[in-house]
Write a sequence for this structure.
């Protein structure tokens, strides 16, 4: 335990320095952080089931001389950061003009606040959120008009997406059932805080989703980067994946196991670090079309073994690292070390499925209530959308839109049936 925890703390501190406060019992430090930006803060938080947490944040702000912009807490965003909540939160920012924003919540709330901040600042250039989906568009627009985003402090409450640390904002159109992405260094929160103690109240499904999201972020990036970033990505992935594999089963068995809570929190934070080193790819791309039937991390967790089989001939180093960790905790069948290529990929994919079953997670798309064949068609169409092209390019086996039907459709159908045999490798 000490080895993993020490390595994880070192990695996070090397990355964020004093811009990120993490650990147990650190929530009360939010007031002085906000006070450095001025006298008013727009606090965005759920005030029903998270009321004790909201009250603690407001008390810390008040003690530091920071008042609530508008005299109230703004309601948080719904699951998967619906577009409507982005526009609603933009209204709070435009009316109350706070010195800073304190976004208290999981990835959905933090992502919605990031996007609302973009619209509130750049509205005179374009007041449509669609204008900023893609990579680097926000920073370019800010430069054109000489503006800066409102300082944002992200207070994470769920071991999940790493949204409090990263340049990503996932926004959903609930009507289309499709998620799209803003990717821009400009939207990284100015400061962040994560008190791992607050995750003790997270439901079992959310805990599973977070553990799988940590693995997805770190492993997908490890599979996608090259050159000088590869060693860094491997170091992050080894720590993040092992924390998730060792401790997820413990925290699911005992939600009050605070050592395991801290471990999963750090695993997801390291996943956030990973996606600042490189990009995610296939599993994340598919997950964007499953927002109406599955949590994001769980959708990625289901898809990654199937994409691993597709990528296997190109990622033997990464597959062996994953195999080593899964083998250490009893999820790999004997003899896998002698395998290579596609056979190695299938063996490690079976180990990933065995781990998912051990923590009670779905292992194929048809395990999701509400999944239909229409989701496959939607995912294939999304993969051809130029605004999501970055995910195709990030794959260890890059695809073009013209190759999506030929190679991605068999992956999706394999994930629906649980049978790897139909996946075609690109020579």
């Amino acid at each position: 335990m000490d080895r993993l925890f020490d390595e994880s703390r070192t990695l996070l501190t090397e990355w964020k320095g004093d811009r990120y406060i993490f650990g147990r019992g650190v929530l009360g430090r939010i007031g002085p952080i906000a006070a450095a930006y001025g006298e008013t803060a727009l606090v965005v938080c759920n005030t029903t089931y998270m009321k004790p947490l909201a009250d603690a944040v407001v008390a810390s702000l008040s003690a530091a001389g920071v008042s609530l912009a508008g005299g109230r807490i703004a309601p948080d965003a719904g699951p998967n950061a619906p577009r409507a909540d982005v526009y609603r939160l933009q209204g709070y920012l435009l009316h109350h003009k706070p010195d800073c924003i304190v976004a208290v919540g999981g990835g959905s709330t933090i992502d919605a606040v990031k996007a609302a901040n973009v619209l509130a600042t750049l509205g005179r250039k374009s007041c449509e959120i669609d204008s900023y989906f893609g990579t680097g568009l926000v920073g370019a627009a800010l430069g054109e008009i000489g503006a800066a985003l409102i300082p944002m402090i992200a207070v994470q409450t769920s071991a999940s997406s790493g949204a409090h640390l990263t340049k990503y904002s996932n926004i959903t159109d609930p009507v289309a059932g499709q998620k799209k992405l803003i990717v821009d260094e400009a939207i990284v929160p100015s400061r962040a805080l994560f008190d791992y103690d607050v995750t003790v109240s997270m439901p079992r499904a959310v805990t599973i989703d977070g553990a799988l999201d940590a693995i997805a972020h770190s492993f997908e990036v490890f599979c996608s980067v090259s050159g000088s970033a590869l060693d860094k990505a491997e170091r992050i992935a080894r720590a993040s994946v092992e924390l998730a594999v060792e401790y997820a089963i413990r925290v699911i068995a005992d939600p009050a196991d605070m050592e395991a809570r801290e471990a999963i929190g750090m695993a997801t934070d390291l996943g956030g670090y990973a996606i600042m080193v490189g990009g995610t790819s296939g599993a994340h791309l598919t997950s964007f079309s499953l927002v109406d039937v599955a949590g994001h991390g769980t959708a990625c967790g289901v898809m990654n073994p199937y994409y691993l089989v597709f990528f296997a001939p190109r990622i033997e180093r990464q597959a062996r690292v994953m195999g080593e960790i899964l083998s250490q905790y009893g999820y790999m069948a004997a003899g896998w070390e002698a395998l290579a290529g596609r056979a190695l990929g299938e063996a490690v994919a079976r180990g990933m499925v065995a781990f998912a079953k051990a923590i009670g997670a779905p292992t194929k798309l048809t395990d999701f209530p509400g999944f239909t064949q229409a989701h496959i068609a939607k995912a294939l169409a999304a993969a051809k959308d130029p605004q999501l092209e970055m995910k195709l390019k990030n794959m260890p086996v890059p695809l073009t839109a013209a190759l999506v039907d030929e190679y991605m459709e068999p992956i999706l159908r394999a994930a629906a049936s649980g049978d790897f045999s139909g996946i075609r490798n690109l020579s």
